[in-house]
Design a protein that fits this description.
Strand order of the largest sheet: 2-8-7-6-5-3-4
Distance between the termini: 39 Å
Number of strands: 12
CATH superfamily of the largest domain: Type I PLP-dependent aspartate aminotransferase-like (Major domain)
CATH architecture of the largest domain: 3-Layer(aba) Sandwich
Number of domains: 2
Order of helices and strands: EHHEHEHEHEHEHEEHHEEHEHHEH
Strand content: 5-15%
Oligomer: single chain
Number of helices: 13
Radius of gyration: 21 Å
Shape: globular
Length: 382
Amino acid sequence: MFAPVYLDWNASAPLHPVVREAMLPWLGTRFGNASSRHEYGRQARAAIDEARARVAAAVGAHATEVVFTSGGSEANNLFVKGAAACMKPGTITISAIEHPCVREPARQLRTTGWRLRELAVDADGRIDELDWCACLEDKPSLVSVMLANNETGVLQDVAAMAADARRIGAWFHSDAVQALGKIPVDFRGLGVHGLTVSAHKIGGPIGAGALVVDKRVELAPLIAGGGQERGLRSGTENVAAIIGFGVACELAVKTLAEESARLMLLRDQVERAVATGGARVFSAAARRLPNTVFFSVDGIDGETLVAKLDRAGYACASGSACSSANPEPSRTLLAMGVDPTVARNAVRVSLGRETTQEDVSGFATVFGELVAGLKNLTAVRV
């Protein structure tokens, strides 16, 4: 069966073989409920505890600060809604380029008396410093700013912003789903009150994530019930997925420096190839993830180019996987001031542990041929 070269690692990473092997026993003979007091239950509880320690170690946190969830979306909702439920309504500030699973719960808070403020970004997708200073004067109660953008790969100075937020008494949360495994992520060093991470972006299973949360932060649970996860996330734990998450974290951190350097070289090669084809690379002047290239070619629709690349054997994306059903241009690019017509042409290439030099060289060749063909077709129609 034909399998395209996978260049959409920001959407999801394939399950790492070592992770799969670690999970298999918990999908078969080790089936105990971690809340049970017998041997089967005790084994499951011990395995969860070990996984929790691995996730904590990967982000410089203590194991007691890790709350397992079903993924990044739930973890983001848990902090935004959970913290707001324990406060008097005030202002929640998010960036204009946040993932929908931060933006939408923040918007929902308006029905309970909260005010929502969105921080502007500059043309490269970095938080506008003047707007951030103006925001601080309004003394928000909650702030959520992602560490790394899922489309452009741009990194925000979360540590500095979190320090500012602490000075005015605001809780600061950061979605680090795209950052984990690609750059060092240090919960304590960032100084945030909450940090979201997810398994399936780093070779772990889909359906496992975590909110790393300062124990001084009071949160109301989204799911009430048996009191699992310190009462913050009730429900029988997904033991196999949690174990896989822990192993994936350990593997990602172990190879982080070497893999980041390798991916950056490949990323730069992709950027040279698309630039040769006339593409504009977004956020090229900003600090970015080492694996992400977001670009557009004038006059060539992004969805069309992605479809042609797929048929030619290269699986890319026209933007965020979570927004693929939305025909509107990228909200991130619009917030950066990119013309909607240009934004509709956007294509994202994201690399990962299985991406090879041959994959990138092949992509460069095919990309050049496809773009030339599409431009000729457009010229003939005109």
